[in-house]
Amino acid sequence: MKTLQALLLSLLATFVVACASKKVEPPPNVSEAPEEFRVPAPQDFQFGPGDVIELKVFRAPELDAELQIAPDGTIALPMVGRVNVSGKTYPELVRSIEYSIGQFYVNPSVSVNIVEVSNQKVLVLGEVRSPAVLQIESDLSILEALTRTGGINPDARTDNVLLVRGGVETPELYLINVEAIYGRGDFSQMVYLQRGDIVVVPTRTIVNVERFFKRVQSLLAPFVSGSAIYRNAIIGGAQGTSVVIQ
Q: What radius of gyration, in Å, describes the C-alpha atoms of the chain?
């Protein structure tokens, strides 16, 4: 609960600052290097539970297999045993598999293909019609995320949409001027979402701030009451999980 309170205080501070200033800053370098905010490229992509990989080992076809990462973050290598691969990038995963196989084979050469990605999810909350956990199947912009949640409510404040990046334990908070994208075509404000991002659309008027943060608290509580619950919803949970505002 302390984590939730800290996150809400950060959100409130960010919202108050935004209300006091007309200038809204996008995430750093978003206009110069928007690729930093896209779905990670294969070399930066981190594997997680539910992902499926195709393994091929040069001159050892008996080890070739299609493997799914288990909920505990491991894969079962034929004739080798279980190897922890969760959170590893592509190069790290290849090196880890080669090291494990190398205990039994001389200088193994491993090729890994990504067959299926199931752990790329973001959470969209606040003044949208259908708050939800969304699956990232390709590059997902903040505009598309808002569209996939049914669009924004009439009392939404779109010039100060909050992006929480880095998870609920060590969040980095950014303000995105979605209204500038819609109204002026200002694509310097365009952000592409990453796994674990939380997008929060605030209310338009300061009068509704208390109601808004009560909503946010009620929505976030199940995800931060235990880190395992959050990881299940954002990283390893079932697709199509929805969040409903009462």
A: 21
What are the pLDDT digits (tens) for 118-176? 767 788 988 899 988 887 777 788 999 999 999 999 988 898 888 888 755 567 788 88
Q: Backbone phi, then psi, for 197, in 5-degree steps?
A: -65, 145
pTM of the entire structure?
Answer: 0.52
Q: What contacts 191, CB < 8 A, 6 or more positions away?
A: 26, 27, 30, 34, 37, 141, 142, 163, 174, 176
What residues does 172 pair with on adjacent strands?
Answer: 165
Structural class in CATH, domain 2-39+120-236: alpha beta
In tens, the pLDDT along 51-96 reads 899 999 999 999 999 999 998 899 999 989 999 998 888 899 999 9
CATH architecture of 52-116: 2-Layer Sandwich (3.30)
What are the residue ranges spanned by the domains of the chain? 2-39+120-236, 52-116
